[in-house]
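From the thread on structure requests for the teaching lab: each student submitted one protein with a one-line request. Submission from student K.M.:

"Model Spondin domain-containing protein from Paraglaciecola mesophila, tokens only."
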Amino acid sequence: MPNLIKHYKKVLLLALPLALSACDDDDTREVIVEVEVPAPEPTPVDVSYEVTVVNLTNGQPVSPPAIVLHTDGNLWAVGQVPSVELERIAEEGSSESFLTLGLASAGGDGPITPGDQQTISVTIEDITDAKLTIAAMLGNTNDAFTGINAWDLSQLAVGDSWTTTRPAYDAGTEKNTESAATVPGPAASGEGFNPTRDDSGFISMHPGVVSSDDGLSTSALTVEHKFDNPVIRIQITRTE
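Reply posted by the TA:
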């Protein structure tokens, strides 16, 4: 029945000018029906960046950098309690869970040895004002990490680059014992992530490595593993 009614209305509409014409040859009218045509959906635009991380230390491998693009808040900051996702990076260099915290992310291919560098590409769709956060562990430490927090990418047009150097931070989740049992890097091959927190509990600037050479008898580290700030250099380039 609904189809018949619809058909009937259509026929009546078409017949209307004829009926009017039959009544009065001089009184012909046209019926104009306006139909709204939806605007085409805009094609999504990819916004891409290349991030190059250079290891500036003498004896600290930098874990594969975790790069996250997000729009709100901080994924870490000095003075804050670190998330478990950041703790996993700072204590064992594991970034899988940290990379899930944003709208887009990318991880490094492997550790960056002293003096080497690595370039990582990351793409986000239709967002030019995203924030960039990076985190990576200094492997021959208990819970030292480095990176950048919530840097505003809206400053970069296509082809623009920005370079910065970054210091080492202490996650505050594990005491800096430097022992063979607790340092996961190649200098000791000790334990990685441990959910028990026994240090300050908040992120701070890292005080540095003491080492056995400078009097910490229980340290598995040597003067070779000491570092000065900055520990990495970061270059960010918008490519698309």
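TA comment: Residues 2-23 form the longest helix (22 residues). The chain has two helices and ten strands.
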